[in-house]
Amino acid sequence: MNQVNRPVYLRLRDEICAAILDGHYPEGAMLPSVRAYAAQQGANPLTVAKAYQQFQDEGLVTVQRGIGMFVAPGAVKALRDREREVFVREEWPEIAKRMQRLGLSLRDVTEKA
Is the pLDDT of residue 6 over 80? Predict the structure, then answer.
């Protein structure tokens, strides 16, 4: 699905996922509050809460009542494994087709990177 056509909560979820994988929120780190993240992103707090709820449902974050939400131990590996699977299953086939159309090999791409 095109990123523009994805629901806002899924786009926010993708951004949070990327931030965790990039080390901006390492395991044990506190995520911004729903209100703070909503204000930062210009989003509705209920939309942010929905994105956060998915992380909680998957066990990727823990909640400490009255304190905040924290990246759970093992979340980075779980997210990386899931994102790799999605990439190989959904994104790579389109990239491979485009490379074939353009006559590019993996070597062409890696030598220019």
Answer: yes
**Nearest CA-CA partner of 72 in 82, 59, 81:** 59
pLDDT digits (tens, 9 = 90+) for 28-47: 999 999 999 999 999 999 99
Instruction: Please spell the DSSP secondary structure of 58-98, one letter per residue.
Output: TTSEEEETTTEEEEPTTHHHHHHHHHHHHIIIIIHHHHHHH
Residue 34 has a CB neighbour count (10 Å cut-off) of 20
Q: How far apart are the C-alpha atoms of 82 and 20, rounded to whole Å?
A: 13
Angle at the Cα of 47 from the Cα atoms of 82 and 2, rounded to 5 degrees: 55
CA atoms within 13 A of residue 12's CA, in its CB half-sphere: 25
Distance CA 29, CA 83 (A): 20
